[in-house]
Amino acid sequence: MGLDRVGIIGLGLIGGSIGLDLQAKGFEVCGLVNREKTATRAKERGLAQLVSTDPTIISDCSIVILALPLKQLIEPTEQLINALPLKAVITDVGSVKKPVLNKWRGLHPKFVASHPMSGTIKTGVEAGQRGLFKNKPWVATPDPTTDQEALNVIKNLAISLGSNWITTDADTHDQSVALISHLPVFISASLLKTVNKEKNNEVSVLAKTIASSGFEDTTRVGGGNPSLGVAMAMYNSSSILETLTSYRSSIDKFEQMIRNKQWKQLQKELEKTQQDRPDYL
Amino acid sequence: MGLDRVGIIGLGLIGGSIGLDLQAKGFEVCGLVNREKTATRAKERGLAQLVSTDPTIISDCSIVILALPLKQLIEPTEQLINALPLKAVITDVGSVKKPVLNKWRGLHPKFVASHPMSGTIKTGVEAGQRGLFKNKPWVATPDPTTDQEALNVIKNLAISLGSNWITTDADTHDQSVALISHLPVFISASLLKTVNKEKNNEVSVLAKTIASSGFEDTTRVGGGNPSLGVAMAMYNSSSILETLTSYRSSIDKFEQMIRNKQWKQLQKELEKTQQDRPDYL
């Protein structure tokens, strides 16, 4: 078993992109997918040297990356668990870490919970691309039971893909992504819902005609993958609900300023948001 | 007085961009600005053939474009009003039309209320650029008192800049821009405010580190020009307040679905927003 044979389960945007970059770095990559059709296309695209629907394809790998949707990570099948080599280091790429860690902590001795913060609107076997992780955060959320050597293996893997390695605890991670990634989905979807329910037909038609880049930007994440939005909501409910409560009080404050014609205060607030935004870019 | 001499009052993003494109189309452009320093820079940048702080610069123009901030359009100075040639066709570029039209209807017989739907984050004399209006809507909001010939002059001007000409009434315009342009500013600023008021320091620091393109997109318009946000709120208050009420009920519905674990309904709602978004692009 060489250190440089990496298994990737799932060759969608994240799995496929990891496969492309790792091969360019000299790793041997074995891809495990669900369907023959996906396997064929993944081979054509060169997402891995070997691609199969047969779980034994990953049995010689020293690292296995579970590049699967959240639901499959949190409710893994027996078949998936049994396919993982006991001596391999395992990591996932799920965008919520506490329920993943809670599930996998007892399932595999070398499991490391992690989350590369890269994404595009694309999904599926066509989505994988080179350089997706370059200069992007890759967050790991070890707990006291996490194997330190395994953690180091994933750290080196992430760094070899050009990511910025960050470790934190799963709670802090899940609250942070609720704020900067999950809350924006529901804010943005609510804007689309609001515009769509406009009852004045002339207003509605004109809105569709004149909407420009500002509307496009603000609605991008709300018009994204519905299943991903549902998975965030299912597995990070309490943090998202907290941020929604806080968000509503922010909206209320802006509304009050407008209703009460507090223009100086509104100017100050908007100056503050303008000043603060670059901290997040 | 030739038909091809155009005066532009204000040479910021919109005025400067109009100046650059009109000159390329063979028009003679005269720019009127407030400060000597701006005049010097506008000349250096070639935003108009003639630039001055002296209002008589526009006295021979057959078209005058008021490329000024909303406040100056809605509360115009005597000096501005007196500078406008009586025989010229006048238009503005304000993003709220009802108060502009209400003010100017009685001030000049050939006033046409209009609004080119183009913008970038840039402002000031450095902002003007070629091709800003190409394939973008240019909305006019005539009322029964609007001079039809004057309306045609502005229509031809907008079309010569590559814009898509649209006419509607001022109320419909103001309600539509409230939905697709003004509401997004306050939604987006509220997200920044929510993230900024996070009290858990570890969560706050991690959020700043891992925020990525989704957060960048969703906060873009909320981190824009504060004075423009205040002007929207001041002059389009009632439409914005209506959209905020409707928006809050959308947010409430998403919150209820998450709180009540209505995942199938949430999936349907997010499928709908995903399907509907392309109508606005």
What is the element layout, followed by pairings?
Two copies of one chain form a homodimer.
Chain A: E1 5-9, H1 13-24, E2 28-32, H2 36-45, E3 50-52, E4 63-66, H3 70-74, H4 78-83, E5 89-92, H5 98-104, E6 111-112, E7 114-116, E8 137-140, H6 148-160, E9 164-167, H7 170-196, H8 201-210, H9 213-219, H10 226-235, H11 237-259, H12 263-276
Parallel strand pairs in A: 1-2, 1-4, 2-3, 4-5, 5-6, 8-9
Antiparallel strand pairs in A: 7-8
Helix pairs in contact in A: 7-11
Please describe what this structure looks like.
By secondary structure, chain A is an alpha/beta fold. Chain A folds into two domains: 5-168, 3-Layer(aba) Sandwich (Rossmann fold), CATH 3.40.50; 172-280, Orthogonal Bundle (6-phosphogluconate dehydrogenase C-terminal fold), CATH 1.10.3660. Helix content of chain A is 51%, strand content 12%. Chain A is built from twelve helices and nine strands. Chain A has helices at residues 13-24, 36-45, 70-74, 78-83, 98-104, 148-160, 170-196, 201-210, 213-219, 226-235, 237-259, 263-276, and strands at residues 5-9, 28-32, 50-52, 63-66, 89-92, 111-112, 114-116, 137-140, 164-167. In chain A, the strands form two sheets. In chain A, strands 3-2-1-4-5-6 form a six-stranded parallel beta sheet, sandwiched between helices. In chain A, helix 6 (148-160) links the parallel strand 8 and strand 9. In chain A, helix 7 (170-196) packs across helix 11. Chain A is elongated and about 65 Å long. The mean pLDDT of chain A is 95. The interface between A and B is large, with 93 and 93 residues.
